[in-house]
Every structure is written in structure tokens, then in C-alpha cells.
Amino acid sequence: MSSEENALIHGTHLPRSSLLVLVCTYNERQNLSELFSKIDRTIPGVAVLVVDDNSPDGTADWVEQFSHQRSETYLIKRSGKLGLGTAICEGMQYAIEHRFDWLLNLDADLSHDPQAMTKLLAQAEKHDLVIGSRYVEGGGLEGCSWKRVLVSRCANAYARLVVGWNVRDCSSAFRLYRVASLARLDWKAIHGKGYGFLEEVLWHLIHAGCRWTEVGIIYAERQKGDSKISLREAMSTVASLHRVARLRKTTNNRS
Predict the structure, then answer these.
(1) What is the pTM of this model?
(2) Is residue 3 domain-resident?
């Protein structure tokens, strides 16, 4: 390993080469230049994988061209809009297969500030899962309508009620995962294809005994492009939560 690859991520003892940043996209071309710029200002030259669902706006084409000038830029172009959960899952499998130690997922629309990645990474040594949380000290929402805030808070309260978690932000996609913990999961038991995947993988990691924590992050409403959340995605999340609740009940009965 060269000294360049062995460079430590600022504020941590982690080699930069141990981390893969995952960005899942659908029609996010207009956000990518700024996103990559902010990523590189925070962790210069870190490996970034974009999983794109065949975006009509040419997102994949932009990433492919950009990869010629920025090394450590990778692309998985899928056949169509297959759901956020399956995109994150594909990124996780990539991290496992390519033997990264850490996978950090963040949104492409800049609602997750790449500068906050170092806050999650600072907790890596003592944890297997670090959640960027809107609902712990230092966290919050910025520029969001009262309706979005209400829906988000109610959804998380419902998740805690149904599943019995004490995680404050169950639906945050801004997460740092220890790849070895992901590799041990029973992936056939995880069925969520949309946003509900986040709750399902969270339950399986916690149930497996992973050490987890939350750090406060500010979630900012997107400035460019359209939200991908739909009624279908919302129903998918509810279905995933009830699937997890059944798993929890079955596990409790066995114990």
C-alpha cells in the first residue's frame, strides 16, 4: 500500500483506503459536482461509489465522464428505478466484495452535509454502526416544511413504538457501517426494497449485537431536483416495520 493510500482520514486513525462512500442516485446530475467537491474537501480522494437507477437526466453519464478525471470514482448503472433499498444493498455488497472496512452512505441531494462525515468517522473505532441523527443533541432539520418535520417525527415515533427501539432516528440514511458486520448478515431475511430497507437492516444489525451510536447532524431540505419520497415508498416502510416487529416477537418468544 502506498503512502498516499495509507493516508489517515483527518481526526481518525482510519486509513483513507479503508472507506467507501456510497451515493445512490436518480436524477441527481445537477447536484453531483457540488457533492463531489464537498466530499473531496472533507476526505480528499476517498473512494466513492455511485449506484444509479438509469436516471433520465444523464446522471450515470456524468459520473462515467467524471471518473476519467477523478480516480477512485466508481459507478454501478442499473436497469431502472428499482428502489433506494436495493441500491444501498448493492452498494453494501460491493463494499463486502471489494474488502473495504467501512461504508458511509449519504444522500446525493446535499441534504446530508459531507463535512459531517468526519463526525460519524470519529465514532468508528468503538462502534459497528454510526447513525447521523436529526433527533439527538446537535441534530436538527433546516429549511424543511412543518409537514415534512411532522411526518418525519411521527414516522420515527411509530418505528420506536412498533419495533421497541430506543434509536432516535430510525430512518436516517446517513450512516457509517462496519463492513465486517454487514458481511455477517443473513441477506435473504431482508426484503425491503425502498426506504423500509433502512429499518430492516438496522434491526438485523442491532439484533446481531452490533455496537451502535447516534451523532447529531443537520438535515437540510434539497435545493435542486425533486424529492423521491412517494406514497408507495411510505407504504413500503410501514410493511418493513411490521416485518421487523414480527421478527422481534418471534425472537422474544424463542428466548
Answers:
(1) 0.89
(2) no
